[in-house]
Amino acid sequence: MSEDFVFDGWRRADGRMGIRNHCLVLATVACAAGVVREVGRRLPNVVAVEHAHGCGRGGPDLGLQIKTLAGLVQNPNVGAAVLVGLGCEVVSAALLKGVLARSGKPLETVVIQEVGGSRKAADEAEDVARRLLGELESLPRERGTAADLMVGLECGGSDTFSGLTANPAVGKAADRLVELGGTAILAETTEMIGALGPLLKSAGSEEVAAKLKANVERQETRAREILGPLAGTVLAPGNVESGLTTIAEKSLGCVAKAGSSPIREVVDYGDRPSSKGLVVMDTPGYDIESLAGMAAAGAQVILFTTGRGTPVGFPAVPVIKISSNSELFEAMPDDIDLDAGTILVGKSISEVGEQVLDLLLRVARGERTRAEINGQAVFAIAQEGPAF
Amino acid sequence: MTVLGIRVHLRDNVAVVAADVQSGDVVRLDDGGEVPAIEAIPRGSKVALGPIVCGEAVVRYGEEIGRATKDIAAGEYVHTHNLARER
Question: Fewer CB in 10 Å around end: N or C, chain B?
Answer without folding.
Answer: C
